[in-house]
């Protein structure tokens, strides 16, 4: 199955054919949960902006191991914000990276004085305690980290390392499994340790299964391959020693993104209710029916689209927003079995609609088709459980592009005649239990694409019911969509919102022409195209 997102390319100097993202999922927080803040002094705006910029410069330098530059900006930041927990944490990180463990510990302890649940400081101090073989202190810190952010794979991974080092095998396995579940592919570093723990407990078959899967995806990890061979030969004791502190080091590492970009979808799993039965096959079957009905009911619709575009500088600081408003037309057509064309046209006051910066974000209507019966098989789908979104019970589904299946949903295209680069996606969907409609979709890259310097592409789309009075038809359509991308040296946060929907019912023999730039979109057939007025329905399914 494949989809093609199309647009009048001559309107755009650069085209990116992909869909749109948003802020991190605002799932109801777990009581007591907290994570590290990147806040800067709550003072006058000019000072706050200056401190935020210095923080961005310091973090960029630390990621590049440019320690002299980092020191300069940290000194300025310390003068601007001497009593902020995040500043103290970064000073500790600098000290640690430059081999000054004593001062690193001092700064991180100060961080916890200022913010007792500072997640990164807890992880960093725990990793340091593990290296010093101070297991009692490491355990206390790891347990505090789990309490501070129970949905983070990092906290459970570092606690598993502590339990492994102290021969508490059952608890170590439990924590490693939880880390693996929460972090998905991002927590793969935990899997060799989990296999080692299972082998030590006598569960050889499961240990082998985990390692076989791991080495298929991490062929360059020679230590894991040797570990697998030794376990298969019933010699787990002779396997190369996996240093648990290396798992802790990975768990406590500074995230690659800046503070402008939402966390990767696999950074932590949003909380779900315990004990709810979750039949992923049935959920996919029912959601597939909804998406099939969507395609069957929809020929073409129009909407008013409002766009806010913000460029982000290399320090993570936003420029003033640029806004656009478009008359937006979409048509969805199944050109042959399993092949869909999704066309999008825009104009502004009768003129061709151009996106800010000459970069188009296309394909929002096609994203829900991830769950179409002919497409869902291209993804690994896992039901994580039952939760609520806007008070509505929803199933939380994690998806990831399968490497052995075609990648057909999203691509980056550099120009009208330039090459295309398929983008493998992973993400989550929140699907209403009452009617199996998708209410929210969040995606990320499975991996970066160095050939076009695509480092980040984070998408969130929120859907809602739109009631069309004629025929009593209800369609779930995008209400808002946000995109955050770091591509070819450009960082952008773009927000789209949609209103004033109209549905056009088109005769099946009719073909839709490209819109003329001096008048609204029309059909080139002889038959009448009837707009059906739409009104927003309540969000409750």
Task: Explain the overall architecture.
The protein is α+β, with helices and mostly antiparallel strands. It has 2 domains: 2-24 and 289-389 and 403-422 and 463-536, no CATH class; 45-250, Serine Threonine Protein Phosphatase 5, Tetratricopeptide repeat, CATH 1.25.40.10. Helices cover 33% and strands 27% of the residues. The protein is built from 13 helices and 17 strands. The strands form 3 sheets. Strands 1, 3, 4, 5, 6, 8, 9, 12, 13, 14, 15, 16 and 17 form a 13-stranded mixed β-sheet that branches. The chain has a two-stranded parallel sheet with strand order 2-7. Strand 12 and strand 13 form a beta hairpin. It starts with a strand and ends in a 5-residue tail after the last strand.
Topology, please?
Layout: E1 2-6, E2 14-16, H1 45-63, H2 67-80, H3 85-97, H4 101-114, H5 119-131, H6 135-148, H7 153-165, H8 169-183, H9 191-201, H10 204-217, H11 222-232, H12 244-251, H13 280-297, E3 300-312, E4 322-336, E5 339-348, E6 351-352, E7 359-361, E8 379-389, E9 392-401, E10 411-413, E11 420-422, E12 425-432, E13 438-445, E14 454-468, E15 473-487, E16 490-505, E17 530-536
Parallel strand pairs: 1-5, 2-7
Antiparallel strand pairs: 3-4, 3-16, 4-5, 5-6, 8-9, 9-12, 10-11, 12-13, 13-14, 14-15, 14-17, 15-16, 16-17
Helix pairs in contact: 1-2, 1-3, 2-3, 3-4, 4-5, 5-6, 5-7, 5-12, 6-7, 7-8, 7-12, 8-9, 9-10, 10-11
């Amino acid at each position: 199955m494949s989809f093609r997102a199309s647009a009048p390319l001559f309107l755009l100097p650069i085209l990116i054919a992909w869909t749109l993202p948003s802020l991190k999922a605002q799932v109801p927080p777990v009581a007591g949960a907290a994570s590290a803040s990147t806040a800067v002094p709550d003072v006058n705006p000019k000072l706050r902006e200056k401190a935020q910029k210095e923080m961005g410069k310091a973090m960029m330098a630390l990621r590049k191991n440019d320690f002299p530059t980092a020191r300069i900006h940290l000194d300025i930041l310390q003068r601007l914000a001497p009593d902020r927990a995040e500043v103290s944490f970064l000073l500790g990180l600098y000290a640690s990276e430059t081999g000054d463990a004593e001062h690193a510990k001092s700064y991180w302890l100060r961080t916890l004085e200022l913010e007792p649940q500072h997640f990164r400081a807890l992880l960093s101090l725990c990793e340091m305690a593990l290296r010093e073989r101070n297991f009692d202190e490491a355990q206390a810190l790891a347990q505090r980290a789990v309490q501070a952010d129970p949905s983070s794979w990092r906290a459970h991974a570092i606690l598993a390392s502590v339990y492994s080092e102290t021969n508490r095998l059952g608890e170590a396995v439990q924590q490693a499994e939880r880390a693996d579940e929460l972090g998905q592919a991002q927590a793969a570093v935990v899997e060799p340790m989990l296999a080692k723990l299972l082998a030590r407990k006598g569960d050889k078959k499961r240990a082998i299964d985990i390692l076989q899967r791991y080495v298929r995806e991490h062929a360059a990890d020679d230590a894991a391959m040797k570990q697998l061979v030794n376990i298969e030969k019933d010699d787990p004791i002779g396997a190369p020693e996996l240093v648990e502190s290396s798992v802790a080091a990975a768990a406590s590492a500074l995230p690659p993104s800046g503070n402008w970009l939402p966390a990767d979808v696999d950074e932590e799993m949003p909380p779900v209710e315990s004990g709810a039965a979750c039949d992923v096959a049935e959920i996919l079957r029912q959601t597939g029916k909804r998406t099939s009905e969507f395609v069957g009911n929809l020929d073409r619709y129009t909407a008013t689209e409002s766009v806010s575009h913000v460029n982000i500088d290399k320090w993570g600081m936003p420029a003033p927003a640029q806004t656009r408003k478009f008359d937006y037309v979409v048509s969805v057509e199944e050109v042959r079995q399993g092949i869909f064309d999704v066309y999008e046209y825009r104009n502004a006051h009768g003129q061709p609609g151009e996106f800010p910066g000459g970069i188009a974000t296309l394909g929002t209507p096609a994203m829900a088709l991830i769950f179409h019966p002919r497409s869902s098989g291209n993804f690994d789908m896992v039901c994580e459980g039952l939760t609520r979104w806007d008070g509505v019970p929803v199933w939380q589904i994690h998806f990831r592009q399968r490497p052995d299946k075609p990648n057909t949903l999203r691509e980056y295209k550099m120009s009208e005649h330039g090459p295309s680069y398929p983008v493998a996606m992973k993400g989550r969907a929140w699907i209403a239990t009452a009617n199996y409609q998708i209410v929210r979709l969040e995606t990320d890259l499975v991996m970066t694409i160095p050939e076009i310097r695509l480092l980040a592409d984070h998408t969130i789309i929120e859907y809602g019911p739109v009631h069309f009075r004629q025929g009593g038809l209800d369609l779930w359509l995008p209400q808002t969509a946000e995109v955050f991308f770091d591509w070819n040296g450009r960082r952008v946060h773009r927000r789209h919102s949609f209103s004033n929907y109209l549905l056009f019912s088109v005769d099946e023999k009719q073909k839709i022409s490209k819109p003329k730039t001096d008048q609204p979109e029309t059909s080139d057939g002889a038959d009448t195209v009837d707009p059906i007025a739409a009104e927003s329905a309540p969000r409750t399914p």
